[in-house]
Design brief:
Elements lengths: L20 H4 L10 H10 L6 H11 L6 E2 L5 E2 L6 H34 L3
Antiparallel strand pairs: 1-2
C-alpha cells in the first residue's frame, strides 16, 4: 500500500471547511499525491465533486502557488530539493508561451488580411 504525506495548513481556529485544494497538495516531489487520491480527498472534504472541477481549481491556484505535476502522475509543490523539476517546468512553459504567441501572431496577420480584403 502506498503512503502519502499530505501537507495540510494548520492555523488556530481553522475549520476543515476552510481548506482549499492547495492545502491538500504536498510539498516535495517524493510526496506527490496522485490525481485519483487528490480527487478522493477533494470529494471527502467538499472542495469539488469531479475531476474537471478539480483541474480547474488547480489551474486557478497556480496563479498564486507553483504546483507541478510529476511525470507518471501526482501533484506537488516544489521545494528547494526540486529545483531541477522547477527549472524543467519553467523551460517547458516558456516554450509553450512562445508557441502560443507565434500562433496568435499568425492568426492576427490572417485576420488583418481578411479585414483588408486581401484574401
Amino acid at each position: 500500500m502506498n503512503r502519502f504525506h499530505v501537507y495540510v495548513k494548520q492555523s488556530e481556529g481553522e475549520s476543515i471547511n476552510n481548506l482549499t485544494i492547495v492545502d491538500l497538495i504536498p510539498e516535495g516531489r517524493e510526496n506527490a499525491i496522485s490525481r485519483e487520491m487528490l480527487l478522493a480527498k477533494c470529494i471527502e472534504l467538499d472542495i469539488c465533486y469531479n475531476d474537471r472541477a478539480m483541474r480547474q481549481l488547480i489551474e486557478r491556484e497556480k496563479k498564486e502557488f507553483v504546483i507541478l505535476a510529476r511525470e507518471g502522475g501526482g501533484y506537488y509543490r516544489p521545494t528547494h530539493d526540486d529545483m531541477l523539476d522547477l527549472n524543467r517546468y519553467i523551460r517547458q512553459e516558456t516554450h509553450r508561451a512562445i508557441s502560443v504567441f507565434r500562433n496568435i501572431k499568425r492568426a492576427k496577420a490572417l485576420y488583418e488580411d481578411f479585414r483588408r480584403g486581401i484574401m
